[in-house]
Design a protein that fits this description.
Belongs to the threonine synthase family. Pathway: Amino-acid biosynthesis; L-threonine biosynthesis; L-threonine from L-aspartate: step 5/5. It comes from Eremomyces bilateralis CBS 781.70. There is one protein chain. 42% of the residues lie in helices and 15% in strands. By secondary structure, it is an alpha/beta fold. A six-stranded mixed β-sheet has the order 5-6-18-11-12-17, with helices on both faces. The longest helix is centred in the C-terminal third of the chain and has 22 residues, at 382-403. It is globular. The chain binds pyridoxal-5'-phosphate and the ligand N[C@@H](CCOP(=O)(O)O)C(=O)O. Residues 123, 164, 242, 279-285, 354-355, 449, 475-476 line the site of pyridoxal-5'-phosphate (PLP).
Length: 544
């Protein structure tokens, strides 16, 4: 394993972090992870994407050995010594129910499904959040050695969820010392099981806040809190959403792992190109695929699969990134879902609620790279292209904030992106149809997000042909979305949700004791609540 990235300051440049908006550079992995969001509102990125020139030699590694090889390219041994990183990875994936961590299932012909939901909370978020929980703990233990009471570094984690990040983060951080966790979710807009997975966790360091609004409102509140936190505050705010670089990093692993699984079953020869299809909301999962490709994995295309909240699909078609109210549900034969069926302020409630997102955080990271590559093709050197990329991103995101849109971006820049990305928009009726079709033809029960992906994969196959293998990412277990799955399969003769879908862990969950707070849709309000609660926890901690 090696990286052809040049070395500076004794580390690979891929182990030093900068902000997409140019306001921060030279950060260590530890600082990038603990800060979460850059002070200029940008997102952290490695200064360079490492090329793994001998990635093929990783073929027979176990999931955690592979994770170690990949993560070592981005984390210096100063940040985490190798033995410690290996231990953290072993612990993070020991909680998964599948031996392979992320098994690959053959659906039909050249279509494979990558099951990412075998972690504790039954969604793909566990693949990164078990790891993030453990590295937060690792950094805190190191910082707090020999310290007591108020001198200890306390991390206040604030996250927004449309249903899955919340429970994965809570499971990764519950009961951990020196951490308080606050998770914001949109009231009535997540499935009953997703809600119960969060609000029935009664550990004292876990706080669920429900907001009258959409996921984007929750995400905006989180970003505002990061942007406005008083510098003299005792609170060190940490991020669990995919704005945190560690989330993206850990997700790169399963792109390589699933590729090797195809090689090992002789479905492809090593070096052959494949397509990945990714149900997309905040653009974190598919961005990890982009890193895998840049590192050398033979990916022909990454297919973005959106539901009817389709800002990304519209971007790939037009080059303009624009928040826009979607048409009425009735116009497309919209269907009642796990929550409310109406849509407010442009965000429609669909059968795949975790993807009901208007603005995709991580798209900013991709835009940085596209702007940078565009600048390189125009003759700029590496340093100037970094500056130009950051300037473009800062101005696009300023425009998004003030006008609700940016673009159209230059056509040549869009074409650079289109070399790697394609996109598909999948409606609710199409999601239902695919769920039914796969149940009837191969007996597989897809969750609605994975059904969005498989629908997009079928369209991609019709373009790319039968010779290109497709790996479609399955992002959640169907039991989390009983109404949507029931809606698709209720007429099937032998379908029995309780017997065929519901895991033991979910039985009785909806009847358990709950703890949550309803909060006004205002970041100032949430900040005050946070400060008060953390102060109480710190007082209790220093007196115990
Ligand atoms: C089940 C499920 N599928 C897909 C997505 C979209 O993933 P991403 O936000 O990484 O694009 C999410 C959440 O974001 C999710 O919870
Ligand atoms: N779908 C997510 C939304 C948050 O995305 P993240 O990947 O940025 O944490 C969820 O389920 O919460």
């Amino acid at each position: 394993m090696s990286s052809n990235a040049p070395i500076s300051e004794g580390r690979g440049r891929s182990q030093i972090y900068l902000s997409t908006r140019g306001g921060a550079s030279g950060l260590s992995f530890e600082n990038a992870v603990l800060q979460g969001l850059a002070p200029d509102g940008g997102l952290f990125l490695p200064s360079e994407v490492p090329i793994a020139s001998d990635w093929e030699s990783w073929k027979d590694l176990s999931y955690t050995e592979l994770a170690f090889q990949i993560l070592s390219l981005y984390i210096s041994t100063v940040d985490i010594p190798s033995e410690d990183l290996k231990n953290i990875l072993n612990r993070s994936y020991s909680t998964f129910r599948a031996k392979d961590v992320t098994p690959l299932v053959h659906l039909k012909d050249n279509l494979y499904l990558l099951e990412l939901f075998h972690g504790p909370s039954y969604s793909f978020k566990d693949c990164a959040l078990q790891f993030l929980g453990n590295i937060f703990e690792y950094f805190l233990v190191r910082k707090n050695q020999g310290k007591a009471g108020r001198d200890r570094h306390h991390l206040t984690v604030v996250g927004a969820t449309s249903g899955d990040t919340g429970s994965a983060a809570i499971y990764g951080l519950r009961g951990k010392k020196d951490v308080s966790v606050f998770i914001l979710h949109p009231k009535g807009r997540i499935s009953p099981i997703q809600r119960a997975q969060m609000v029935t966790v009664l550990d004292e360091n876990v706080h669920n806040l429900e907001i009258e609004g959409t996921f984007d409102d929750c995400q905006d509140i989180v970003k505002a809190i990061f942007g406005h936190f008083d510098t003299d505050s005792s609170l060190n705010i940490g991020a669990v959403n995919s704005i945190n670089w560690a989330r993206i990093l850990a997700q790169i692993v399963y792109y390589f792992h699933s590729y090797f699984q195809l090689v090992k079953t002789n479905s492809i020869k090593i070096g052959e190109k494949v397509r990945f299809v990714v149900p997309t909301g905040n653009f974190g999962n598919i961005l990890a695929g982009y890193f895998a490709q840049r590192m050398g994995l033979p990916i022909e295309k990454l297919v973005v699969a959106t539901n009817e909240n389709d800002i990304l699909d519209r971007f790939w078609r037009s080059g303009t990134y624009e928040k826009q109210p979607v048409k009425g549900a009735e116009a497309e034969g919209g269907l009642e879902t796990d929550g409310v069926k109406a849509h407010t302020e442009g965000c429609k409630e669909t059968l795949s609620p975790a993807m009901d997102i208007l603005v995709s955080s991580n798209f900013e990271r991709l835009m940085f790279y596209l702007a940078k590559q565009f600048a390189l093709t125009n003759g700029m050197d590496d340093e100037s292209s970094n500056k130009k990329g950051a300037q473009d991103v800062a101005s696009w995101y300023q425009s998004l904030k003030t006008t609700g849109k940016f673009g159209p971006v230059p056509q040549d820049l869009l074409e650079i992106g289109r070399r790697t990305f394609e996109s598909e928009r999948v409606s609710d009726p199409q999601t239902v149809q695919t769920t039914k079709a796969y149940y009837e033809s191969v007996g597989y029960i897809l969750d609605p997000h994975s059904a969005v992906g498989v629908t997009a994969a079928e369209r991609s196959i019709s373009r790319a042909g039968k010779d290109v293998s497709h790996i479609s990412l399955s992002t959640a277990h169907p039991a989390k979305f009983s109404s949507a799955v029931g809606l698709a399969l209720e007429d099937e003769k032998d379908f029995d949700f309780e017997a065929k879908v519901l895991p033991e862990e979910f039985r009785g969950l909806l009847q358990k004791q709950e703890r949550l707070t309803t909060v006004e849709n205002s970041w100032e309000h949430v900040r005050e609540l946070l400060k008060k609660q953390v102060e109480e926890e710190l007082k209790a901690g220093s007196s115990s």
